């Protein structure tokens, strides 16, 4: 099993830009060789319908929780004219190869970060699927 993590670049209001798309394409190149036994988790700084999430989902299954569960921001944020005061965004994700069975996924509450962590419980020995 291999676990990858990333913290992708911030773009104002988390919009897809040409540079962000290049970053996503490079990440997809890196994960493309991992067909089995692979989990990718991280702060994509991207919305659920973004180029990043759609591109990664072509190679790995979304491991949850549902994208309407928000992960950012728990603390006031202000940068270059964009400000956010409340937990109203989903920016953090977990993906896994198809052979990994996702048993449970949840967003955890914490006061220690501006992002809420995601906890995913998996079964690595999924019956009937090559790993």
Describe the protein in words.
- The chain has 131 residues and is of the alpha+beta class.
- Helices cover 17% and strands 29% of the residues.
- A four-stranded mixed beta sheet has the order 1-2-6-3, with helices on one face.
- The N and C termini lie close together (9 Å).
- The mean pLDDT is 93.
Label this structure with key terms:
8 strands; two-stranded antiparallel sheet; Deoxyribonuclease I, Chain A; alpha+beta; globular
Q: Briefly, what is this?
A:
The chain has helices spanning 18-32, 51-57, and strands spanning 2-7, 38-43, 61-62, 77-79, 82-84, 92-96, 101-107, 118-123.
The helix content, as a percent range, equals: 10-25%
Tell me the number of strands.
8
Taken in chain order, the helices and strands follow as: EHEHEEEEEE
The second-level CATH architecture is: 4-Layer Sandwich
Question: How many structural domains does the protein architecture include?
Answer: 1
- Helical stretch count? 2
Q: Going across the major beta sheet, what is the strand order?
A: 1-2-6-3
**Terminal-residue CA separation:** 9 Å
Mean pLDDT: 93
Describe the global form: globular
Radius of gyration, whole Å? 15 Å
Helix and strand composition category? alpha+beta
Question: What is the secondary structure topology, with strand pairs?
Answer:
Elements: E1 2-7, H1 18-32, E2 38-43, H2 51-57, E3 61-62, E4 77-79, E5 82-84, E6 92-96, E7 101-107, E8 118-123
Parallel strand pairs: 1-2
Antiparallel strand pairs: 2-6, 3-6, 4-5, 7-8
């Amino acid at each position: 099993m291999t676990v990858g993590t990333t913290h992708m670049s911030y773009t104002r209001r988390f919009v897809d830009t040409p540079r962000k798309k290049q970053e996503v394409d490079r990440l997809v190149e890196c994960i493309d060789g991992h067909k089995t036994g692979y989990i990718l988790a991280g702060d994509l700084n991207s919305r659920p319908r973004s180029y990043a999430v759609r591109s990664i989902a072509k190679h790995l299954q979304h491991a949850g929780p549902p994208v309407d569960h928000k992960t950012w921001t728990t603390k006031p944020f202000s940068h270059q004219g964009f400000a956010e005061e409340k937990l109203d965004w989903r920016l953090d994700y977990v993906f896994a190869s198809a052979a990994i069975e996702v048993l449970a996924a949840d967003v955890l509450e914490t006061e220690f970060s501006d992002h809420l962590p995601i906890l995913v419980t998996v079964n690595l020995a999924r019956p009937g699927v090559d790993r």
